[in-house]
Design the sequence.
């Protein structure tokens, strides 16, 4: 078995036994990045020397028999939306292209304490707004299984680097499916924890009531290991849940007896690709052969989930992104050019005797705000800010945002009732395998519908996991989504691991 066929858990056992050093492992992944990423574009930045230095320090601690952290020596990639002290944290946006974080996000601090080795920062849709990673201000990321296909988003770089075996572990974020959807399209494992299970302190906010940080890995066992490391209460995050974190890595390999799995009738209707449906139904059949009981269930309000999400998320984005104004931090337009343009416009109006035009001229400060935001944000971010601002505006708040919040409650109640009958809910992660790059960039509504099966978990605050369950005739990965009640990640991981151990899909590698 080659190094890149091994999981992070297997790497960790090799590190602990002394079969390989952290420097050797880190250098192998850095070489892999140098060889492969020019085709994929998963990383925005890689700091090879810093990673090697960090790995050497961990090796020295092991040689000296000093205590080491839970992930000691394992390389990890970070989505470029988490603050990391001294590092540029750009959110793949021109607005933050030169911003260096003055502190560590709690997740970063916990990874440091666990002695993980930071490889670099991965590409994403700007401010996590998108489903294809085509909205990055800096570069395009390609799907390792087919370079003409999208890796999904917004954590497309984080998923692609794991699928292409450029990192054994990566961290992504999920606001409406942004971990699970790219995991499905890239053929890896992605987990969105319960809202509040992982601290959001130091995460650049998109939609604060929906955002959650989680792992992307090549096995369920690795996801359990990484979640165990980053989860837990944080007094710096007022939404963090003060509940104990189970030892997921110790129980993940224990099968569940008497497992009851629900499949949602609304998820198997028109629009679902026949190959995806076949793979998901085969996965349900595998669970049945493993002793699980299958039950048809209904989530009647799921048909409103996308519309509800695309009122709530843009509304929160409009509020969160108001801070990017060219004054506090981040990008600011060229003021000399702006003032020269303003002076020229004023002279023209004066010469024309247009007093009304002069009266309507924006003050310099307002013009600076407008130009900064127009130049610093990409089209999709602007679109969502405008949608959210409209939904929150006087006269429309009750009709849109308030109504969406009421429907959100109904969606949560659907899940509550479903979990009275079943332990887990299983279904597709996307309606079709990875789509072609550029195929949906001109059709925002089609792109939003890619989130059809994922946004409900964020609206309800429950955990969701995606793992590979098949391949299309063209060789593209197909993902299976599992969902559990809030704070039941242990059950979710054990249920997912049951399927993974009985199949070979997670062992297949992208044909780079």
Sequence:
């Amino acid at each position: 078995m080659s190094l890149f066929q091994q999981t992070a858990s297997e790497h960790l056992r090799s590190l602990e036994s002394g079969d390989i050093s952290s420097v050797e492992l880190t250098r192998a992944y850095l070489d892999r990045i140098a060889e492969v990423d020019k085709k994929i574009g998963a990383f925005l930045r890689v700091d090879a020397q810093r990673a090697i230095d960090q790995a050497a320090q961990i090796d020295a601690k092991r040689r000296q028999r000093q205590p080491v952290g839970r992930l000691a020596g394992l390389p990890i990639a970070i989505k470029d939306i988490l603050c990391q002290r001294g590092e540029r944290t750009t959110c793949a946006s021109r607005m933050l292209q030169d911003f260096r974080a003055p502190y560590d996000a709690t997740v970063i601090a916990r990874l440091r304490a666990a002695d993980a080795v930071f490889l670099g920062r991965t590409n994403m849709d700007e401010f996590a707004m998108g489903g294809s990673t085509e909205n990055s201000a800096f570069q395009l990321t390609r799907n390792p299984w087919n370079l003409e296909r999208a890796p999904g988003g917004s954590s497309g770089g984080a998923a692609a680097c794991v699928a292409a075996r450029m990192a054994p572990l990566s961290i992504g974020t999920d606001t409406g499916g942004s971990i699970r959807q790219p995991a499905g399209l890239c053929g890896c494992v992605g987990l969105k924890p319960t809202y509040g299970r992982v601290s959001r302190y130091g995460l650049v906010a998109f939609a604060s009531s929906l955002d959650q940080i989680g792992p992307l890995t090549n096995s369920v066992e690795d996801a359990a290991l990484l979640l165990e490391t980053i989860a837990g209460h944080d007094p710096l995050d007022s939404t963090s849940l003060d509940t104990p974190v189970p030892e997921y890595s110790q129980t993940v390999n224990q099968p569940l007896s008497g497992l009851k799995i629900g499949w949602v009738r609304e998820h198997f209707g028109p629009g679902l690709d026949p190959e995806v449906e076949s793979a998901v139904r085969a996965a349900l059949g595998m669970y049945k052969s493993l002793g699980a009981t299958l039950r048809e269930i209904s989530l009647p309000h799921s048909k409103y989930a996308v519309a509800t999400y695309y009122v709530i998320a843009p509304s929160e984005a409009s509020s969160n992104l108001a801070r990017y104004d060219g004054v506090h931090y981040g990008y600011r337009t060229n003021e000399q050019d702006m003032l020269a343009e303003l002076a020229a416009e004023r002279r023209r109006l004066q010469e024309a005797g247009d007093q009304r035009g002069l009266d309507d001229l924006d003050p310099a400060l307002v013009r600076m705000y407008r130009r900064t935001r127009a130049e610093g944000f990409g089209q999709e971010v602007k679109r969502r800010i405008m949608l959210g601002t409209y939904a929150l505006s006087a006269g429309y708040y009750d009709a849109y945002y308030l109504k969406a919040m009421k429907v959100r409650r109904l969606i949560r109640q659907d899940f509550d009732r479903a979990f009275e009958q079943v332990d887990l809910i299983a279904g597709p992660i996307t309606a079709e395998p990875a789509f072609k790059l550029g195929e949906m960039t001109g059709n925002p509504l089609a792109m939003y519908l890619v989130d059809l099966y994922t946004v409900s978990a964020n609206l309800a605050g429950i955990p969701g996991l995606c793992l590979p369950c098949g391949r299309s005739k063209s060789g593209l990965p197909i993902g299976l989504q599992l969902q559990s009640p809030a704070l039941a990640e242990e059950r979710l991981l054990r249920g997912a691991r049951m399927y993974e151990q009985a199949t070979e899909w997670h062992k297949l590698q992208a044909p780079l």
In short: The radius of gyration is 23 Å. The chain has a mean pLDDT of 96. The chain has 18 helices and eleven strands. The longest strand covers residues 464-471.
